[in-house]
Design goal:
Elements lengths: L3 H8 L8 H6 L4 E6 L5 H12 L3 E9 L3 E4 L8 E4 L3 E8 L31
Antiparallel strand pairs: 1-5, 2-5, 3-4
Amino acid sequence: MADKKTAKVALHMIEPRATEKTYLEQAKRTYVFPIKLSTSKQEVIKMVEKEFNVTVTDVRSLIRNGKKTKFSKGKHAYPGITHRQDKKFAYVTLKEGDSIKVFEEPEKEEKKTVKPAKSAKKEDK
């Protein structure tokens, strides 16, 4: 039987972030993925390798704590403070030569060189 964690890995779709900061990280073959708080590094490796057919060499993860936000319910209600949800990100480094297409890049078309047509008249010698 499959583990519960393995079943979650198969169902979870993973997409890299497309921001300016992550674009600069791609030069170092590092891609940033938002993941669930309960996801481990081993699960991230399995998901990325399965989804994009690449080889992962390193995974670093971090949790960004949610910010405090103020709220008020009505004009005379006592304002309160709540927190936004925490977010977890995985920085995945790929093997030399592997890459993931994140940003829309126009495909480079090969320019066909047109050879001039030969003249229909053949020279008799």
